[in-house]
Write a structure and sequence with these properties.
The chain is mainly α. It folds into 2 domains: 84 residues, Arc Repressor Mutant, subunit A (Orthogonal Bundle), CATH 1.10.10.10; 88 residues. Strands 1-3-2 form a 3-stranded antiparallel beta sheet. Strand 2 and strand 3 form a beta hairpin. Helix 7 packs antiparallel against helix 8. The radius of gyration is 22 Å and the shape is elongated. The mean pLDDT is 90.
Length: 220
């Protein structure tokens, strides 16, 4: 059998908490303040993953009737619990990002400086909406309680990561929009090339400092 995807393990982790229907799994994966930012996946894949778990013997499925409507409910098996523990013991894969906005900025020379400015404005606006959504979701969690109280502490760890990533994206969009506001055209010129080199030098200096600090922290 092919290797299971991280999406399947994410669902297996949910099943370790309690039984879920396919609809509940899909809804939770789409609305969870953490999961929808760190692991967004197409709904079709979320519906397929529990079936793959059953095929592996890591979960069972059972048809149940609720208010006259049939639904499939999935439960983790002992074999599935062992698979989850093995996966947790393995080192995580390196993070990767899918940011279409960054692609559009990278290849903005194929358009105009006005288009680039509009792209950056839309990114900043989207980050504002995302931030408002995160705050609203967080307030709801504090008011209504955690969906899975047994994972409140580990969820808080990930919530901090999500908040920092969202904050970094918003800060970058603001910085980039300010930089581009001084450009008269999209094509490269001597002034932009100098600015690009200075920007790279600053980035590398900062990165080297962070690496050195990370090495020292790791040795402690």
């Amino acid at each position: 059998m092919p290797k299971m995807s991280p999406t399947a393990y994410a669902i297996l982790g949910l099943l370790a908490s309690r039984p879920w229907s396919a609809y509940e799994l899909a809804r939770h994966m789409k609305t969870s303040n953490n999961l929808r930012f760190i692991w967004p996946r197409a709904e079709s894949k979320i519906y397929q993953a529990p079936k793959d778990l059953v095929a592996r013997g890591w979960a069972t499925s059972r048809e149940e009737s609720v208010k006259g409507r049939s639904r499939t409910v999935y439960r983790i098996t002992a074999k599935g619990g062992r698979a989850l523990r093995i996966w947790l013991e393995e080192p995580p894969a390196l993070p990767h990002f899918e940011i279409e906005a960054a692609l559009k900025v990278t290849y903005a020379t194929g358009g105009s400086v006005e288009q680039l400015r509009e792209t950056l404005r839309s990114i900043r606006a989207e980050q504002l909406v995302m931030g408002e959504s995160m705050v609203a979701s967080g307030l709801k969690v504090l008011e209504d309680g955690f969906a899975m109280p047994e994972r409140a502490h580990t969820s808080a760890l990930v919530a901090e990561l999500v908040a920092q990533l969202a904050g970094a994206m918003a800060a970058w969009a603001t910085w980039a929009e300010k930089a581009v506001s001084e450009w008269d055209e999209i094509e490269i010129d001597a002034e932009k090339e100098t600015w690009a080199r200075e920007t790279y030098e600053r980035i590398l200096t900062t990165a080297q400092g962070r690496l050195e600090k990370a090495r020292l922290d790791l040795d402690e």
